[in-house]
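Input sequence (330 aa), recorded before submission:
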Amino acid sequence: MRWKKLTLETTTEALDYMAAIADEVGLSGFEVEDNVPLTEEEEKSLFAVIPPELPPDDGTAKVIFYIDEDADERKVAEDIKAAVSDYEGIFDPGPMTFTYSETEEKDWVDNWKQFFKPFRVDDHILIKPTWEETCDAAPDDLVIEIDPGTAFGTGAHETTKLCIAGLKDYLKPGDKVFDVGTGSGILSILSMKLGAYGAIGTDIDDNAVHTSVENTLINSIPAKYSGKEDAKLEEGRVCFTTGDVMEDEKLRKRIGEHSYDIVVANILAPVIIELCKVAGSFMKKDAYFITSGIINTAEEDVKKALLFNGFKIVEVKRMKDWVGFISVLS
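Predicted structure, token format:
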């Protein structure tokens, strides 16, 4: 199968927002090219194989989207520009120019896998790609196997690490977990490995939801895909469903009001601000709302949204330019 290749000229500043923008326009996968050098710490811990040399970093980047050969690539480009305009003033999008070409599926679907290697999230959590036969795991390590497919979430990004740290600190055995914007399912999987009663994961991307089911089963955790009408929490299982809990009131009620000990969301700041309006409806009296995906320039906006919607912030976690909030209902 041939695919249309849509290459966007943008900035490195915009890259942190591209997952949300891709989701918004219905694109489930993209590739990034930039010249940002890695720190010594990143070179030791990152999951990628590091190229020997890079040209000087000039702040520019390319984002490459792959779309069906029958799609209107110029309409997709306009949709991307419209989605980027929603973030006006938050980041510099750069020139926002597009070039168009074609490629074979085999050129990109699996090539990235050669760069994804086992890596540690912390001293006791190790992420292992499913296609790697071995990894350097200690006897007391918690190992999570992941094949992200076209979903967002390998566990390497700071936002995921902040949510993982929040789950490790606040999740108790037997807790019921709601994972909003589940991506590859990594937070639901971790919750179950930490002793959760059960979990529900939702995402607006149906491909991500199916990927989450597969990843969870790979980790020997019972999982299933459910339609909106039968999405429900079950003991010892993760139930994944496609939908937008911010817009779909029936889905919110089906998932369960005031039923969860943990609500976790690794989503970008503008989405978290909207999620704050409904997150409390899922939470028990003493539940925790764990959020990340928040660039530090949007920290105050998210803080205001949390407080306005009846939350009390009990901890703020930071990693590089990213922020995570742990909140309870006040």
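Checked by second reader. The domain at 2-110 is CATH 3.30.70.260 (Alpha-Beta Plaits).
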